Amino acid sequence: MQTKGFIFDLDGVIVDTAKYHFLAWKKLAQSMDIDFTEEQNEQLKGVSRVRSLEKILAWGDKSISDEAFQSLMTKKNEDYLAYIAEMTEKEILEDVPKILEYLTTSQQGIALGSASKNARAILEKVALLNTFQTIVDGNDVTKAKPDPEVFLKAASQLGIAPENCVVFEDSVAGIQAAKRANMIAIGIGDAAVLHEADYNFTDFTEISTDFISSIIASN
Ligand code: BG6
Ligand code: MG
Description:
Blueprint lengths: L4 E4 L9 H14 L6 H5 L6 H11 L6 H19 L11 H10 L3 E5 L5 H7 L8 E3 L12 H10 L6 E5 L2 H9 L3 E5 L10 E3 L7 H9 L2
Parallel strand pairs: 1-2, 1-4, 2-3, 4-5, 5-6
6-O-phosphono-beta-D-glucopyranose binds next to helix 3.
């Protein structure tokens, strides 16, 4: 049996942290009299922290000094980390452990490929830090998704060719990054939004071990 590499995005795939990002960004936006809606929060999925703040400031038509920008980034992350501190294994999305266990038993490569600089802290809180053979996160890359850097680095660290890697992603930028890396892209979420993916599922409850097994067996 050929070994394939399965690369998981974190936020929105393994855990639903978008709600905590929303609360932290909302507080920041309110402090600057900027309107910030859940619809706008959707547009920040997969987007780096710096780029997210740039977008919020642009929506609010605000321009600030580099120093103020840095201090807002720090404040937002402190607020976000306060939510993360309360996370437990219960927040792992349904049936994600089923697929992770199946891949482990099948001796496949398992990696994390996330834009977040808090990925390791989150994995530790939900007791998944040791599940991944390698973790590539926002601290390890210079180019954000849709650039393929994060996934290519994960594949290289797994020692598996990109064309033998499969990516689970909930963001448009992440699906584009996977395709640019020449990997199989599995969209988790709204199929209409993630239409560039090779396969689409609403969540992991829809993914059978037979499906994973067929991907492992494919050329
Ligand atoms: C992505 C999230 O995974 O990570 C984005 O979808 C977030 O919403 C980005 O902005 C960066 O995360 P962090 O934890 O480094 O601020
Ligand atoms: Mg995501």
